[in-house]
Amino acid sequence: MKRTAFLFLLICILLLAACGSANTGVIESEEPAAAETSEPIPTPTPVPELTFPDGSVHSAEETTLDLTALTHADVAETAALLAQMPELKEIDLGSDGAWVEKEEEREELNAITSQVERPETAARDLTWDDLLQLQEAAPDAELLYRFVFYGRYLTTWDEEMDLNHSVMTDEGAAVRKILPLMKRCTLLDMDSCGVSNESMAEIRDAWPEMNVVWRIWFANGYFTVRTDIEMLWCANFYPFMTSEFTQDLKYCTKLKYLDLGHCLELHDWDFIRYMPDLEVLIITASGWENLDMLENCTKLEFLEVPPMSHTYVDLRPLEKLTNLEYLNICGIGQSDGWEVLLNMTKLKRLWIGLWTAQSFPEGAIEQIYAALPDTEINVTEQMAAVGSWRVNPDGSVPERYLLLREQFDYDHWQDHAPYAYNDPLYKAPWERRS
């Protein structure tokens, strides 16, 4: 009996083992089937290799490239290859052959090349059009090219392009071709280069991110300034400051402080429309006939406009000048648009004066006081731009007028009046010839 039980137990164990083996076999047979349905690993696409005219081979993914041996004959083929290299960031084009590293050698060449666009010693046959073609083919890359231009040693990576007093006869055409290559340049100085104001303004407008500077002459040729000035004091020069000889002031678009008081013969003030950064303007007792030119001078903080005589003035052009802190409109005979004063809530001082106040309709002054409770308002002054405007009742000088004297440096006006000899970059004709 025991032997029979033992045999029965052994048979059960063998049957269980056989079942386990069968189950394991099923699992093992399913795994290869799952592997067969997985996605195949893609084969990497090979990076194209480009063969350049000089025989050099470059990957299409390169970020820098040496083309210092490139010639004019190979520019078109090279440009086509550059268009296939989207990762390019820098291309070294070497130099024009006249460019030298040593300062002492440069001095010897300067005298020879200072009056010509490209010196005869340039050994490279690349043209500006060639460089532009390469730049267009690789618009995201910076081209490094070293060249001599009117005796100046420059590179296309320079941040400044100083060409002042280089005499040009092409209205700046060569400069226009170079500028698209000067991606890092923030200053172009063309003081006294002989290029017309109109052409210089076109260059400035074409590259608004660049500070383009040149020289203008005005007041019948008696005065001169550079177009990047921020302060101009030219008051009391009424014999020379006429409408005919002042319109070129419109090119001084960076002016912040302008005093043209007592310019009696100046009637056309349209040039002020081109000065959006003006913060201080004084045109007291000058020949202006309306204030239309101030419509968009919204940065004005100080404005002094008492007229030469009691005349009609429309104040509505001042509507957008809500940043004003100091305003003097004394001496007006009749007016319209007094309501614009109600929105000038930043005003610290408002000199309306007796005659101007009398020209306002009944109740207007009371409304102004109510709208500007924190403003010092004067409706009794008769002396326009003097009197209490510049001297407090206790004899002290108002803080703002002290700052004004500092901004215009009134105490040393002879040193910064727009006489040509006051400008450090000005050179008289006899100096330029030497």
What would your notes on this structure say?
It is a single chain. The strands form 6 sheets. Strands 12-13-14-15-17-19-20 form a 7-stranded parallel β-sheet, with no helix packed on it. It has a 4-stranded mixed β-sheet with strand order 3-4-5-6, sandwiched between helices. It starts with a helix and ends with a helix. It has 2 domains: 51-157, no CATH class; 218-422, Leucine-rich repeat, LRR (right-handed beta-alpha superhelix). It has helices spanning 2-36, 75-82, 103-113, 128-137, 173-178, 197-206, 354-359, 364-371, 399-408, 413-416, 429-433, and strands at residues 49-51, 57-59, 64-66, 90-95, 142-149, 152-155, 160-162, 187-189, 211-213, 215-218, 223-226, 231-233, 257-259, 280-282, 302-304, 312-314, 326-328, 334-336, 349-351, 376-378. The model is unreliable at 21-34 (pLDDT under 50). The protein is built from 11 helices and 20 strands. Helices cover 26% and strands 16% of the residues. β7 (160-162), α5 and β8 (187-189) form a beta-alpha-beta unit. By secondary structure, it is an alpha/beta fold.
Please supply descriptive tags for the structure shown above.
7-stranded parallel β-sheet; alpha/beta; 434 residues; 11 helices; 4-stranded mixed β-sheet; 2 domains
Question: What is this entry, summarized?
Answer:
The protein is an alpha/beta fold. Helix content is 26%, strand content 16%.
Portion in helices: 25-40%
- Which structural class do you get from the secondary structure elements? alpha/beta
CATH architecture of the largest domain: Alpha-Beta Horseshoe
| Molecular shape | elongated
First-last Cα distance: 137 Å
CATH homology superfamily name of the largest domain:
Ribonuclease Inhibitor
- Total helix count? 11
The tally of strands reads 20
The CATH C-level name of the largest domain is: Alpha Beta
- The overall number of domains is 2
Q: Residue-averaged pLDDT, rounded? A: 88
Give unreliable regions as ranges. Answer: 21-34
Characterize the main sheet.
7 strands, parallel
Tell me the radius of gyration. Answer: 39 Å
